[in-house]
Structures are given as C-alpha cells and as structure tokens.
Design brief:
The complex is a heterodimer of chains A (123) and B (109). By secondary structure, chain A is mostly beta strands. In chain A, the strands form 2 sheets. In chain A, strands 2, 4, 5, 6, 9, 10 and 11 form a 7-stranded mixed sheet that branches. Chain B is mostly beta strands and 109 residues long. In chain B, the strands form 2 sheets. In chain B, strands 2, 4, 5, 6, 8, 9 and 10 form a 7-stranded mixed sheet that branches. The radius of gyration of chain B is 13 Å and the shape is globular. The chains are: A mainly beta (123), B mainly beta (109). At the A-B interface, strand 5, strand 9 and strand 10 of A face strand 4, strand 5, strand 8 and strand 9 of B.
Chain lengths: 123, 109
C-alpha cells in the first residue's frame, strides 16, 4: 500500500489562497485515482475533488467548484489542491485519499488516507 | 445524486454485545459500499470494501452486507477499542462523485 503525507496547511484570511500537497511513498502512486476529503471541526466527512490516474479527468463538489483545483504529478508521486477564494466555512482538516481494492478496473473504496492537515480560514 | 443516511446517530452498547449500523441509500445503486472507522484525532480507516469484504488487517468481528438501498455494518462482539465514529461511503461511476453518510457514533460503556 501507498503511504500519504499532506503538507501546506495553516491559517489564512478569508478570500486568501493556499496550496496543499500530498506526497506518496511507493512506486504505484500513478495507478491510483486520488481525491481530497475534508472534515470541518466536529463534523462528518465531505468529499471535495477527484482526479484520474493520468490527471486528465477532474471533478469537484459543488461547494468548491470554481475555487479549488486538483492536480497531480506522477513523476514525483505528488497530489496538490490549489485553494483560492477561501471562506470561513472551508476551515477543517483536509485529507488526501486514494481509491483502491479495485474490481475489474473499477475502484469504489477510499483504501488509503493521509494523516490530515489543518486549514483555518479566519480574520 | 445519491444520499446516504446512517442510523442510528448514536449507539451505546457494552463490551461483548453486537452492534448493527445501518446505511440507507436514496436512490439505490448497484455499485459497492465501503465502511470506515474514525477514532478522535485520526484519519478514517477502511473496514469494509465492496459491501462485504474486510480490508487487510480488519478483525473478523467486522462484517458488511446489503444491496440496493439498505446496507449494514455488524460488529459481532464489541471490544472497548471499537468506540469510534463509523461512516459509509459510495462512489458513482460517472461522474466520479463520492458520497459519505453523516456517521454513527458508537460508544462502548
């Protein structure tokens, strides 16, 4: 399995920008579809964004569409989330997670998770 | 867009008892369902994939079942360390949207 480590979180003012990174160990990162998931303080899990193995296909939750951009670089096993126009309600712990346990080429379960990184949006 | 509703919101049981957690999908779907355990301050941990398969290293007391609209996570004999939040999750084939249930808190008293 791949180990994931996020970085780049911190305190940012409303309207500001932040870039999160997720670095994967192991040589099979390029074979995993990847996502970002966040958890607001005391709340449940919220899926934010998806990227295909090649990086050519991306998809976003309505709550972040047009403000967040997901990308990946398979040459250095990294995943990124560029966040702009940040709002107070974007505060939370952000996880990178990968889809695994594939069956016939279809992968439905988030089998690997980073430890999470805290993003706080506040003035 | 599929909505996953988990019940109960909170479950309080004793060690050795059996826990039954529900995840209802609306509308129903044919793809598989996953279950996660999350302890405070930790990342979610995959317990069950493809509705009924235990992930690597998951104890046999955890089992999953269901199809269509109704899915169940069963913990056959509770251990104190099973106190946690539990989430169900599904993924659409296209567009590749992922949905979580709102979670069930399991307290072992």
């Amino acid at each position: 399995e791949v180990r994931l480590v996020e970085s780049g979180g911190g305190l940012v003012q409303p309207g500001g920008s932040l870039r999160l990174s997720c670095v994967a160990s192991g040589s099979t990162f390029s074979s995993y579809e990847m996502t970002w998931v966040r958890q607001a303080p005391g709340k449940g899990l919220e899926w934010l964004s998806y990227i295909s193995t090649s990086g050519h296909v991306t998809f976003y939750a309505d709550s972040v569409k047009g403000r967040f951009n997901i990308s990946r670089d398979n040459t250095d096993n990294s995943l990124s989330l560029q966040m702009s126009g940040l709002r107070v309600e974007d505060t939370g712990v952000y996880f990178c997670a990968g889809l695994g346990y594939c069956n016939g080429g279809s992968c439905y379960s988030l089998s690997m998770w980073g430890q999470g990184i805290l993003v706080t949006v506040s003035s | 867009e599929i909505v996953l509703t988990q019940s109960p919101a909170t479950l309080s049981l004793s060690p050795g008892e059996r826990a039954t957690l529900s995840c209802r999908a609306s509308p129903g779907f044919s793809n598989s369902l996953a279950w996660f355990q999350q302890r405070p301050g930790q990342a979610p941990r995959l317990l069950i994939y493809d509705t009924s398969n235990r992930a690597t290293g998951i104890p046999v007391r955890f089992s999953g079942s269901g199809s269509g609209t109704d899915f169940t996570l069963t913990i056959s004999s509770l251990e104190p360390e099973d106190s946690a939040l539990y989430y169900c999750q599904q993924r659409d084939s296209w567009p590749p949207r992922i949905t979580f249930g709102q979670g069930t808190r399991l307290d072992i008293k």
